[in-house]
Prior knowledge:
alpha/beta, Rossmann fold, four-stranded mixed beta sheet, 11 helices, 42% helix, 19% strand, binds nicotinamide-adenine-dinucleotide, binds uridine-5'-diphosphate-4-deoxy-4-fluoro-alpha-D-galactose
Amino acid sequence: xxxxxxxxxxxxxxxxxxxxxxxxxxxxxxxxxxxxxxxxxxxxxxxxxxxxxxxxxxxxxxxxxxxxxxxxxxxxxxxxxxxxxxxxxxxxxxxxxxxxxxxxxxxxxxxxxxxxxxxxxxxxxxxxxxxxxxxxxxxxxxxxxxxxxxxxxxxxxxxxxxxxxxxxxxxxxxxxxxxxxxxxxxxxxxxxxxxxxxxxxxxxxxxxxxxxxxxxxxxxxxxxxxxxxxxxxxxxxxxxxxxxxxxxxxxxxxxxxxxxxxxxxxxxxxxxxxxxxxxxxxxxxxxxxxxxxxxxxxxxxxxxxxxxxxxxxxxxxxxxxxxxxxxxxxxxxxxxxx
Length: 338
Ligand code: NAD
Ligand code: UFG
């Protein structure tokens, strides 16, 4: 029998790529999204890739009645929970909004999940839940100490899931800690579409290459890293999506609670990424080094060993593919998103 997966936040960046991979593997996908950071045009991109439009509810994970309707109507086996607000700076300015959306929203969703006796839940956590590490390399058992409101909401939801598991041993739970998702679907039909000025490096570089922004501002070149700029673990969004399918397969076999890093384990600096993007796009990326951004760490990359052992998954795309795919999307998106 086909499994039905509810994808909350399924019109967003990572949710839409995961919906595509699920649909291509024969899963029935139902999307719930309130469009707070996405648009219905994403459905057109999903349809172009898969030949189908997934059933979609435009609504909020905090809406109990809507959740009840979905679980009653659609016979959901598993939930992939991507819906959330993710802008670190906005979270500092509007902590209640972030706590309500990300934490209250998740509690409301989990309550409906328990009532409907859903079998599995997969949650989008983040490497921001970790405290600082001198080696920049994170294993899942390292101390958790998020320094911003956004990261704290992710840790709170992780803790709620750990509590839920104690009283509901038959519920399979995967907590996936993403490192830096970048890239776009290789078709060029879906990708990231940040509203306003991008906060993240890759979409900012893509805007500079397009001539939408004059130059990149590099936030500090005096970090204790080989070239002085920040080191991160950039992971292709398609690999990340496949990591969710690997986690789903694992939970179908064993109703465990697993907490796993999803990263490549390979750090790249801001300058590395800028240089690769210049080659891939054939465009010059002018830059200016400015002071460090508050809250940034010098380096952060995954130890991906557990994901390999437990999920039999590893990220396959290299940094060239990530830059090529975002560049293709960057050139196409003007015609796709209206
Ligand atoms: P995104 O903003 O593109 O997607 C999130 C989607 O959820 C959006 O379509 C938005 O409209 C929807 N949404 C938000 N609040 C909702 C609510 N209350 N009810 C219904 N829908 C709601 O973000 P993304 O990059 O795809 O991230 C997906 C998840 O992964 C988020 O939970 C995010 O915190 C987490 N995450 C993202 C990153 C990253 O760098 N992109 C890193 C680590 C973790
Ligand atoms: N950077 C610049 N200039 C920019 C943007 C970024 O120099 O215009 C630098 C940053 O200082 C950092 C690196 O590029 O060294 C990466 O920054 P991003 O903003 O792209 O990513 P972060 O590592 O700061 O954070 C991202 C998400 C978080 C998530 C975290 C870990 O924004 O939500 O990855 O998963 F939690």
